[in-house]
């Protein structure tokens, strides 16, 4: 970290507009699709964050409630901060099928941001390179780079810096690029000129994300109850996944993209040319059972440097067990699950038992002929009358 240490003497004669233009140009060269500059005043967002926390929507993510007002007041997190340089980087690799994979319940769906190498390192490095170029030009200045994990309100800053609007799915959407991009920031003490915030929202009367969210996690416009979100359930949550969500998870074993895939603006997504984001180990199409059969050593080797690594082997098995429970009946799946029926970890064991019972239920249903539609209709009527 370079401490924020703006020195008006040293920077006498600095042309802030020329610096901003250069930053935009270098950002492009470094693989960012857009750069915007904003100040540290987050207005209503501090209150939105407090309301979200008060409602308990952060679930077990205690880190969201820590740090007091540092998250919503950049200059408290990094004293001396005057401006925030917000950048975005597209991540969808070319020729990766997404919606079609959701329709293959025997295959694993891994959120498209997590198919390749971990983005944190890559983006932080590029942000440091961006700052480095400027340092060469104007001499030392104060900055600190952030991506995702620090107490920073990345989306609010991006909206203020003009990168996009808050969609109803809470994502920052750009009218020409959709939302499949990462955000990152440089906090700095340089008095750079401000970009206008992104005005208005282009969602109009659309509510597709809210309607299609498998678990009903989008509880209000731009508000996600993380406790219901598959991304939280599969990546953040420890312990058992509440049973009420397991069927709705389908084959999503790490993260979820549904509220973006159904969004009309996603058709403007541009493929990323970053080699780091290319799928490894065919994670864009792998069979659930093949992933479940990885030994711990294989898991560790195959996920080195990937966002999947932080799950740990037990949660990896837990998530895959849910996917396998939701897959069509197959004796191969049942055999794979049975090998882990006595797994030492309680959570894995319980999920494996759940998955087996789902598999057996599906096998038994396949043998029962479906109810004739008329009988079914009559049955519903009788039930309705008797309970009236
Ligand atoms: C915690 C977290 C999560 C949690 C909680 C999600 C959430 N919505 O808060 C979980 C684990 C569920 C999650 C999931 C995902 N995440 Co996430 N997550 C974060 C993290 C670390 C903090 C987000 C946060 O501050 N939440 C608190 C709430 C209060 O903030 P908010 O969601 O931004 O909500 C704002 C709106 O509700 C708005 N608001 C409220 N009312 C109103 C009213 C009006 C009128 C307006 C305009 C706005 C508004 O104000 C709130 C505060 O600004 C950020 C990184 C960071 N440090 O910022 C990444 C981040 C937001 N995640 C990201 C991604 C990619 C995802 C997933 C797509 C991953 C996946 N494929 O599985 C999903 C998407 C789920 C979704 N629809 O939000 C990206 C988003 C990029 C983008 N284009 O927007 C970020 C920025 C990481 C990054 N550096 O790229 N995530
Ligand atoms: S990521 Fe999935 S579960 Fe979470 S809000 Fe979006 S659609 Fe719903
Ligand atoms: S699906 Fe519709 S409502 Fe949801 S974010 Fe996209 S445009 Fe907005």
TrEMBL record:
Alphabetical list of InterPro entries matching this protein: 4Fe4S_Fe-S-bd (IPR017896), 4Fe4S_Fe_S_CS (IPR017900), QueG (IPR004453), QueG_DUF1730 (IPR013542)
Superkingdom of origin: Bacteria
Keyword Transferase assigned: no
Alphabetically ordered keywords of this record: 4Fe-4S, Cobalamin, Cobalt, Cytoplasm, Iron, Iron-sulfur, Metal-binding, Oxidoreductase, Queuosine biosynthesis, tRNA processing
Gene3D superfamilies according to UniProt: 3.30.70.20
Cofactors required: [4Fe-4S] cluster; cob(II)alamin
The reaction(s) this protein catalyses: epoxyqueuosine(34) in tRNA + AH2 = queuosine(34) in tRNA + A + H2O
Positions with a binding annotation for [4Fe-4S] cluster 2: 213, 229, 256, 259
Binding site for cob(II)alamin: 71, 148, 169, 172, 183, 231, 256-257
A GO molecular-function descriptor: epoxyqueuosine reductase activity
A Pfam family that the UniProt record links to this protein: QueG_DUF1730
Pathway info: tRNA modification; tRNA-queuosine biosynthesis
Active site: residue positions: 148 (proton donor)
UniProt binding sites for [4Fe-4S] cluster 1: 203, 206, 209, 263
Enzyme Commission designation: 1.17.99.6
Record's subcellular location: Cytoplasm
Cofactor comment text: Binds 2 [4Fe-4S] clusters per monomer.
Keyword Repeat part of the UniProt annotation: no
Domain 4Fe-4S ferredoxin-type: 194-223
HAMAP family reported in the protein's UniProt record: QueG (MF_00916)
Subunit note: Monomer.
Family: Belongs to the QueG family.
Function of the molecule: Catalyzes the conversion of epoxyqueuosine (oQ) to queuosine (Q), which is a hypermodified base found in the wobble positions of tRNA(Asp), tRNA(Asn), tRNA(His) and tRNA(Tyr).
Name listed for the protein in its UniProt record: Epoxyqueuosine reductase
Species this protein is from: Kushneria aurantia
Lineage of producing organism: Bacteria, Pseudomonadati, Pseudomonadota, Gammaproteobacteria, Oceanospirillales
């Amino acid at each position: 970290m370079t401490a924020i240490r703006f020195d008006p003497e040293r920077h006498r004669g600095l042309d802030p507009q020329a610096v901003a233009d250069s930053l935009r140009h270098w950002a492009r060269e470094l693989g960012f699709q857009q750069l915007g500059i904003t100040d540290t005043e987050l207005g209503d967002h501090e209150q939105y964050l407090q309301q979200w926390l008060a409602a308990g929507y952060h679930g077990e993510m205690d880190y969201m409630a820590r740090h007091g007002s540092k998250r919503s007041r950049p200059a408290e997190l990094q004293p001396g901060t005057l401006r925030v340089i917000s950048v975005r980087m597209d991540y969808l690799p070319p020729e990766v099928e997404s919606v079609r994979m959701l329709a293959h319940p025997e295959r694993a769906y891994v959120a498209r941001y997590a198919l390749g190498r971990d983005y944190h390192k890559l983006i932080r490095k590029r942000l440091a390179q961006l700052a480095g170029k400027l340092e060469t030009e104007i001499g030392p200045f104060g900055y600190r780079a952030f991506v995702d994990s620090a107490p920073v309100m990345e989306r609010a800053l991006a909206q203020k810096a003009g990168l996009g609007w808050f969609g109803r799915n809470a994502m920052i959407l750009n009218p020409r690029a959709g939302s499949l991009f990462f955000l990152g920031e440089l906090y700095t003490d340089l008095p750079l000129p401000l970009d206008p915030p992104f005005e208005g929202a282009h969602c109009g009367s659309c509510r597709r994300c809210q309607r299609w969210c498998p678990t009903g996690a989008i509880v209000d416009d731009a508000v996600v109850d993380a406790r219901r979100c598959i991304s939280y359930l599969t990546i953040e949550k420890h312990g058992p996944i509440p049973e009420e969500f397991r069927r709705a998870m389908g084959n999503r074993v790490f993260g979820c993209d549904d509220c973006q895939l159904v969004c009309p603006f996603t058709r403007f997504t541009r493929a990323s040319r970053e080699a780091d984001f290319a799928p490894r180990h065919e994670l864009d199409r792998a069979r659930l059972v093949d992933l479940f059969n990885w030994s711990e050593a294989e898991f560790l080797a195959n996920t080195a440097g990937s966002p999947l690594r932080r799950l740990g082997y037990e949660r990896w098995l837990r998530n895959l067990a849910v996917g396998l429970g939701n897959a069509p009946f197959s004796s191969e799946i049942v055999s794979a699950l049975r090998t882990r029926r006595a797994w030492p970890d309680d959570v894995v064991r319980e999920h494996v038992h759940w998955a087996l019972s789902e598999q057996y239920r599906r096998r038994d249903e396949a043998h029962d002929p479906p109810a004739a539609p008329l009988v079914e209709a009559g049955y519903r009527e009788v039930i309705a009358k008797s309970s009236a």
